[in-house]
């Protein structure tokens, strides 16, 4: 009988049971969704605080227990500071020098320089850019003759997200809602689209065999689109500096912060339950920041990348839940109408954020459909998980090994949320939200490395649905699929067969003059 090491035994067991490696293969070949693959891993070792498995030969620790998540990824986050790198440092400097890929002290410095750009008062400053795009969005549909316009939500939300994020981060007014062939949009889609066997393999491969990718200098992203965005941003910075152009966007905030220290913040309301707060224990930059043109370009391109697919996914799932749950939608329409009336027909930042039911709906949609199914950390300093229960042994986590936070699986675990597949905004009412188990809600990740721009994402969602519901009702049409099935063809969360719904005018009077 051959003797094998515990590690080999574990890999063999996984292959034999088809549990993890088998489910990775099913995901690569489009037979299983990425969310299902992670759920398989989550339930592989039931009733444990964490599971371990191998990404081929790399050990991965999947953390499931809320207290352990808090301990490891918040309190002891200095042991788990970086993401597993999947973009080779030798690749394009613009794409590599972004916050998501940065590591250790370099990341910490950049994060503290960028955090002031995303405060609530900066969101208020940028609110006018968001409303400009929301207004364009509704006018696009109000111009149509039909009373009910059939629309594939994911496509139109992607175009909307493209327009907003380009407007806010690049300072470029793009109109992909009206022009689907817009160059910025097509390049953004190319950059973020993870469909097709080659792209899926290339992307999953960067997680599964990162060392090989590093050696071969393979980037999972298309080079032509990276070049397109680099030159767009550089030209934009040059033109502004030459002509002293000022507009309320991120390039402007960063260029300005190079000359003047960040000003004391004016008080502004926060954007809701889901806002990342753990990530703000940083010493914020109170002096002028030292940031080069290249670094500004790298950051704003990351913002575009990070805020395009995520936001469009979130908006599509909110639209789906409103269309599938008419009683929720009617209650929200009531709140929208009341809010519009209370602010005399001219919506304000404060009024958007005063809507409690809107916050409950958006929070629950992000619980049921967290668009980022999984986030990861790399162990940067050896760590020991002490045994807590009699049947546990303490577990050593080696430097360089991966830790995964299975967001989707935690949000759908009935231990955390009873009837987890039910869309129930009441979970987040004033009364009930106090009973949500801490560290079981992660649409924007966790700890100091959590999403930098949760406020922006939430503000975009609330403002767009305010505009939509002022003018339309979202109704099922022939092609609508309820219940929604998660697509097996994409790594990012999407609906099989698309998100088809109708936008039904609420009144004939809302026809725009222009
Ligand atoms: C609904 C919209 C969004 C969702 C669901 C989302 C979610 C996430 C998640 C899960 C992470 C990883 C956090 C972790 O590992 O703990 C992340 C990181 C990040 N997000 Fe977002 N995000 C959204 C919108 C945005 C937008 C609009 C921007 C920029 C304008 C943005 C910028 C970033 C950046 C820069 C990071 C990396 C932070 C770091 O490593 O320090 N995100 N986001």
Automatic annotation (TrEMBL):
It comes from Zophobas morio. It is a peripheral membrane protein. GO terms for cellular component: endoplasmic reticulum membrane. Heme binds at residue 451. Belongs to the cytochrome P450 family. The keyword Aminoacyl-tRNA synthetase does not apply. Keywords: Endoplasmic reticulum, Heme, Iron, Membrane, Metal-binding, Microsome, Monooxygenase, Oxidoreductase, Signal. The lineage of its organism: Eukaryota, Metazoa, Ecdysozoa, Arthropoda, Hexapoda. It is found in: Endoplasmic reticulum membrane; Microsome membrane. CDD domains: CYP6-like. This is Cytochrome P450.
